[in-house]
Amino acid sequence: MKQKKIIPVGNIKNKHITVSVPGSKSITNRALLLATLASGKSKLGGALFSDDSRHFLKCVEDLGFETVVDEPGREIRVKGIGGAVPRSEASIYVGSAGTAARFLAAYLGCSEGRFYLDASEQMRKRPMEPLLKALESVGAQIICTEESGHFPMEICGRGITQYHITVDIDKSSQFLSALLISGCLSKEDLHIHIEGSHGMAYIQMTIDMMEQFGVHAEKMSDREFVIPAGQGYKAMDYYIEPDASAAAYFWAMAAILGISVTVAHTHFDSLQGDVEFAKILERMGCLVEDRGEGITVTGPEDGVLKGIDVNMHACSDQAITLAAIAPFADGPVHIRGISHIRLQESDRIAAIVENLTALGVHVEEEQDGVVIYPQLSEVLSTGSCSVRKLQPAVIQTHDDHRLAMGFAITGLRSPGVTILDPLCCRKTFENYFDVLEETICKIQG
User: Fold this and answer.
1) Which of 127, 279, 300, 365 is at a distance of 20 to 30 A from 164, taking alpha carbons?
2) CATH tag for 3-21+242-444 (out of 3.40.1080.10, 3.40.50.300, 3.65.10.10, 3.40.50.150)
3) pLDDT (tens digit, 9 = 90+) per residue, 191-204?
4) pTM of this prediction?
């Protein structure tokens, strides 16, 4: 298993750089499914190509859909046939892609046919039961062939035969997004009743994208959505935004290095909730501007951030990123509202505690978050930016891309940080460390 040693950055006074990041994973995979459900040929520009999106694309092809893929041009063309699945029997493998797992299970459960679905060992451990129960309630027969409520499974779809669904989203908002997108397959108005409240920013992204492709979801209350019958998705040319989750690592870099970083083509009117991370950095003492070329974050000149108490429920993918830069704050950093991230690629709360402890940072674990207590003593001087000296440590990534990417930023301010299994970034940002090194060269050039 490979390791990546991170080299601290120095001599960076008054630096301003612009970084480009890949397309959004969340938008790419939603757009793929919407194009599959549409009538006609769609062109998806700016698409992300990573392990997750390639698994989703392979599943679409294995279901019989015609595609044309141009990876260098970041473009995917898909021919949808009005909601129908070309093959009435098929086997698909979703890998570790949560969106592929949840979105395609809902699509196939709401369609007609017999389908076998399998996943990686990591995805086999992640929750599916709330979605599977909802699909069974509308007429699908589902057999989990190993552990109940988990992959692998066989789905026998009969179309939607009941028009009121209840789904619990406390473990994942993807359950609701999946049902909303496939709700247009209902022959009558489909009522989706909600238990829990996780990830509503992602739900809003789903609804907005459905609208862009021609299907309206009516929000009756915080607990009910209705998909009126008689709607269908329209094929279209669709541009995918840069990934705000990927952008956040470079905004975090700006915050702790005291420089300005613009992530090209990112803006606060984004469909993605993770742009909120830039506003969290603003509360911690950074200057944040939405310029014509993108959102720019400028860190404090001394690289010392303000402590913060923040509920990250709406942008929980960035909890690791905030935890990774918390040692460079002047007071405690309290991250709340993230209990669900225990059920993602790793138990992310436990992993935050494990890695910060290895770095010599005192951290208290809570059920729904962490409290991080920065150590303000040992400081090294490198050019214009003080470097907080933590303990050298090997970051345990647990095959979780966000742990690798987030704690790499820590290593830019403290010597001795090594990332275990950096290639796990292939899940969403396969050339992350190449882009990071190119950015560092720009900073030091």
Assistant:
1) 127
2) 3.65.10.10
3) 999 998 766 889 99
4) 0.90
